[in-house]
Amino acid sequence: MTRRERALGMARTGQIITVVSLLALAGVFVRALAFTPVDRLQGPAQKILYIHAPAGTMSLMAFAVCGLLSLMYLAMRDRRLDRAAAASAEVGVAFAVAMLTTGPIWGKAVWGTWWAWDARLTSTLFIFLLFVGYLIMRDAVIDPDQRARFSAVIGIMGLVLVPFIHLTVYMFRTLHPDPTLIKPSAPSMPGVMLVTLLSSIGVFILLYAGFVTQRYAVAALQEMREEEMLRDS
Question: Domain map of the chain by residue range?
Answer without folding.
Answer: 47-209
